[in-house]
Amino acid sequence: MTGHLPRRTLLGGLAGGLASATGAGAGSAWASGRGPGGRAAAAEPYVPTAVGKGGGPAGSDRVHVLKVGPASAHTVLVLVPGMFGAANDFRLLAGDLVRAVPGVQVWALDRREENLADRTGFATPDPAAYYLDGHYRSQDPAASGYAAGWGLRLTLEDLRTVVLTAGAGGRRRVVLGGHSWGATTAMAYAAWDFDGHPGYRDLAGLALIDGGVLGAFEGTGAPVQDSPEEVRERLAAIEGGAVFDMTLSGVGLGSRAESTQIWYQLAGWYAHRAPEGRSVLQPRLPDALRTPYPITNAALLGTLVDAGFGWPNDISVHSGRLADSGDVRGWIDDGSTPISRVAAAYAGPTPAVWEWYWPARLSVDLDVTDAYADTDLARSLGLRLRHGARIDVPLYAFQTSYSHGTVVTGARNAVAGSRIPYAAYETDEGMNHLDPLFAATAHNTATRTLAAFLAK
């Protein structure tokens, strides 16, 4: 497999490369009122919301929200996906939460970047041919200069539109959270100055799932790249046309910004629809990622996402193993995260789990946000992190084995430097970075402990 990739690369979860978004393929099963497997999706609408101008192509000045749970709920948990992540990261977790806590609805955000992806191939009989033979519409970085300005400021302005809509003019409480860099985004929102209005005043609480600020990722062995020299170099590269973060190209599944995400969504799509069928994708995999014997569609997805195949913690789950024998080897679940749940989430097509085009400028801004202070460097980037010391809402922080303890340490540091009245710190060292998103209900410590926090 691949070597360990930089922390920036996989904060949203590389374990399965779904696609994440709405875009040209918004006429999907979800948009037509049906969810994965053809089930009714009336309780899980996927809703477009107009946001401010961002300079992108027609149709990109909007975000989408996946809503799970009763519209009459008095508390809305708004969740932000991590790097390369998207709204469907949270659908399974959201369903568990709303069943566990009466009066809660979960809104999962898809950023405006989701509008750039071409999902239409997943409505064809042979999506592998559509994508792997190059028939889809790809974003050319040379023609995407607008993305150079798609940083944290624009993301938070878009997010505030969602938060205020969820709050319904103060009639509902809003808890803001996220996974990985989505948790960092939530903390940035709380500290942000929106033209004199502190972000935390919009919120009733914060929920951090395996992410955050103040060294939350130090334990991963890949600290943030936030020195002034590194920032200058990265900004110069963006100015030179490198507007999309290319880290996922290091996986070995293609050299375009979206290549890996397409492969992972295809793997989920086939594993969801024909799990026991012989793998459609195996003959087309690069040699380094291909097993020497035939496997099923479910087994191929397992080899891409399971920790047992050498993937780094930040891109894997504990799912199971390949069968020991058989003409076509299948997948055996013996971990906390059944491969069928991963497949159901990854299959999409809309909403999906992967964002195809992550703005390089957003990576820079989130790295600089780690210091969680109104520094000269932050101000030079237009980051309005002015109110961290005044945050006065409860906080929940959950960590897996991913950070070796620094997620909770970072959360404790944030609480100590603020007016946060109380915090809940939870740990499950048996989980990898993506397990909280897809683990079976009975084995998901994050769902159980976050439900307890919300119930308070």
TrEMBL record:
<dbReference type="InterPro" id="IPR006311">
    <property type="entry name" value="TAT_signal"/>
</dbReference>
<protein>
    <submittedName>
        <fullName>Tat pathway signal sequence domain protein</fullName>
    </submittedName>
</protein>
<dbReference type="InterPro" id="IPR029058">
    <property type="entry name" value="AB_hydrolase_fold"/>
</dbReference>
